[in-house]
Design brief:
Chain lengths: 273, 248
C-alpha cells in the first residue's frame, strides 16, 4: 500500500470515529482494554477486577459444559411460570378494570400506587406460605409481572375509541364481535408490550429473590460465587444473565412486531411503571 | 356527589372490605395465624414500633438513603444530560448504552457494590443512584432537545448572552420535562433502596422486614410490609402532587 492509500485508510477510520457507531465501538474497546490492563497488572483492587480474558474463559466454560443447566432450568421455571401467572391475572383484570370508566376510576389508582412498591418485599410472605423452594420465587416473578401487564392492558382498553363501539352497536354487532373485532386489535399491542416489560420485571424479581434465599437458580449462583470470592465466575454469570435477558427482550420484540405493529404510545406508558 | 368522590369512596370501601375479610379469616381460624397476621395485629405492631422510636429511626435511615441517592442522581444526571444534549455526537453515541444498561437487570450486580463499599448504606445509595440517574439524564437531554426553537430565536433577537439565554429561556422551558425525570428517578430510587435494604439486610425499613422474616416474627413481617407499602404510597403521592404544582 502506498502513502496515499495509508492516508485514505486513516482518513476513513477518523471519519468512522466521528459517527455514533464509531464512538460506541471505540468506547467499548477502550473499556475492555482498560479493564484487561487493570486486571493483568493488578494495579487497582486486583481481586475485584480479574482480567477480561479470565471472565470470557469462565463464560465459555458455562456455555460448553452442563454446569449451569440445573440452575438455568430453575430460573427459567420461575421466570416463565411467573410471567404466565402474572398474565393470567393481569390481562383479564386489566380488561375488566379498563372496560368501564367507573371501574377504572376506582381500581387504576390502587394498581398505580401498588406498582411503585418493590415487589421483592413480599418475598417473606411467600416464603411463609410456599417455602424456600422455586414456588416462592415464581410468586415474586408473578407479582412483578402482573403490574406492567395489567396497567398496559388498562391503557389499551382506554385507547379504544368510543366512536368505533358506537358504530359497531349501530350496525348490530354482537358482544363477541365487538370483543374480537374492536377490543382485541386495539389492545393487542399494549398487551404484548406489557408482556415484554413483564418478562423483564419477572427476571429481576425471581433472580433477586434467588439471591436472598434459594437452593438453585442463576441468582443463587451469583451469591455463591460472591461468597467464595470467585469474581471472574460471578462477572461471567452476570454477563450471561444480561445477554439472556437482552436476547429474550429482543426476541419478544421481534415476534410481536411480526404479529402486529406496536402502539406508538405504549413505550412512554411503560416508562412510568 | 362528584364522580371522583364517589370513586374514592368505593376505593376506600374496597380496601376496608379486603382488610376486614383478612381480619375475619385470621380470627375465625380459616387461615393459620402462623402464616398471616391480622391487619389489626400488624398495624398494632407498626404503631408500637413507631411510638417506641424504633420504626422512626429506620424510616429516617431509609429517607437519608433515598435523599443521598437522589442528590447524586440529580447532580450527575443534570450535568450528563446537558452534555449529551450539547454535544450531539456524544449524545447519540451514549444514549443507546444507557438505555441498554438500564433495561438489563443491573440490580443483580449488587454483590460488586458490596465488595466496594461493604455491607453499608453506601452500597445501597450508590447502586440506587444509578437507577435514578438514567431517567434524569434521558429527560434532561430530551427536555433541552425539545425546547421550542421560536423561544430560542426570540432570545437571540434580543441579543441575550449565552448565560442569560440558558437561565431565562432554556431552563424554564425544559423544567417540566426535567421534573418528570426527577419523578421517574425518585420512583426508581425508592424501589431500589427499599428492595436492596431487604435483600442485603442493611439500612432502614427494608432491613427491619428482612430481620423480622429471619426471626419468623409474623406480626413484625406484616407490620414491616404495611410500613414499606405506606412509605412508598406516601412518596408517590407527594411526587405526583409536586409535579402537578410544577406543571401549573
Amino acid at each position: 500500500m502506498n502513502i496515499t492509500g495509508v492516508r485514505d485508510a486513516a482518513g476513513a477510520v477518523a471519519a468512522g470515529a466521528q459517527t455514533p457507531a464509531g464512538v460506541q465501538t471505540l468506547t467499548a474497546l477502550a473499556f475492555l482494554i482498560a479493564w484487561q490492563l487493570i486486571g493483568m497488572t493488578g494495579s487497582i483492587l486486583s481481586e475485584l477486577f480479574p482480567p477480561i480474558t479470565e471472565i470470557i474463559k469462565s463464560l465459555w466454560h458455562y456455555l460448553t459444559t452442563p454446569i449451569l443447566i440445573p440452575h438455568l432450568y430453575a430460573s427459567l421455571y420461575e421466570v416463565l411460570g411467573g410471567l404466565l401467572v402474572g398474565s393470567l391475572f393481569g390481562i383479564p383484570l386489566g380488561i375488566l378494570f379498563g372496560s368501564r370508566r367507573s371501574f377504572m376510576q376506582v381500581m387504576e389508582p390502587i394498581i398505580l400506587y401498588l406498582a411503585v412498591v418493590p415487589k421483592i418485599i413480599v418475598f417473606p410472605v411467600f416464603i411463609l406460605f410456599l417455602g424456600i423452594g422455586t414456588h416462592s420465587k415464581l410468586a415474586v416473578a408473578a407479582i412483578a409481572a402482573f403490574f406492567p401487564i395489567a396497567l398496559l392492558t388498562i391503557t389499551g382498553m382506554r385507547e379504544v375509541r368510543p366512536v368505533f363501539l358506537d358504530v359497531a352497536r349501530t350496525l348490530g354487532a354482537s358482544t363477541l364481535k365487538i370483543a374480537t373485532r374492536i377490543y382485541l386489535p386495539a389492545i393487542a399491542g399494549y398487551v404484548f408490550t406489557g408482556l415484554r416489560i413483564g418478562l423483564g420485571a419477572a427476571v429481576t424479581g425471581a433472580l433477586l429473590a434467588e439471591t436472598k434465599i434459594a437452593r438453585a437458580g442463576l441468582g443463587f449462583m451469583i451469591v455463591e460465587y460472591y461468597g467464595q470470592f470467585r469474581m471472574a465466575d460471578m462477572y461471567a454469570l452476570l454477563l450471561f444473565i444480561f445477554i439472556l435477558a437482552a436476547l429474550a427482550n429482543w426476541g419478544m420484540k421481534a415476534l410481536f412486531s411480526l404479529l402486529l405493529p406496536l402502539p406508538r404510545s405504549s413505550e412512554n406508558v411503560a416508562a412510568f411503571i | 356527589m362528584k364522580e371522583s368522590t364517589k370513586a374514592a369512596l368505593w376505593r376506600a370501601l374496597l380496601i376496608l372490605g379486603g382488610l376486614g375479610f383478612i381480619e375475619a379469616s385470621v380470627r375465625l381460624g380459616w387461615i393459620d395465624p402462623f402464616f398471616l397476621a391480622s391487619p389489626v395485629q400488624a398495624i398494632g405492631v407498626l404503631w408500637s414500633q413507631l411510638v417506641s422510636g424504633n420504626a422512626l429511626y429506620l424510616i429516617l435511615v431509609t429517607l437519608y438513603e433515598i435523599a443521598a441517592a437522589l442528590l447524586i442522581s440529580t447532580v450527575v444526571g443534570l450535568l450528563v444530560g446537558f452534555v449529551l444534549w450539547r454535544y450531539q455526537l456524544i449524545g447519540a453515541s451514549y444514549e443507546l448504552f444507557l438505555a441498554a444498561l438500564f433495561s438489563s437487570p443491573v440490580i443483580l450486580a449488587y454483590p460488586v457494590f458490596l465488595v466496594f463499599f461493604g455491607r453499608t448504606s453506601a452500597a445501597v445509595i450508590v447502586l440506587s443512584s444509578f437507577f435514578g440517574l438514567v431517567p434524569i439524564i434521558m429527560n434532561t437531554k430530551s427536555a433541552f432537545q425539545h425546547v421550542n426553537p421560536i423561544l430560542v430565536q426570540v432570545g437571540a433577537s434580543m441579543n441575550l448572552s449565552r448565560q442569560r439565554m440558558f437561565r431565562h429561556i432554556l431552563l424554564p422551558a425544559a423544567a417540566p420535562t426535567i421534573f418528570s425525570g426527577f419523578r421517574l428517578g425518585l420512583t426508581y430510587i425508592l424501589k431500589s433502596v427499599l428492595g436492596l435494604e431487604y435483600v442485603i439486610q442493611v439500612g432502614g425499613v427494608g432491613m427491619w422486614l428482612s430481620d423480622a422474616a429471619f426471626r419468623f416474627e409474623v406480626g413484625e413481617v406484616y407490620a414491616g410490609l404495611v410500613g414499606t407499602t405506606l412509605l412508598s404510597i406516601l412518596f408517590l403521592f407527594m411526587i405526583n402532587h409536586a409535579e402537578m404544582k410544577v406543571r401549573k
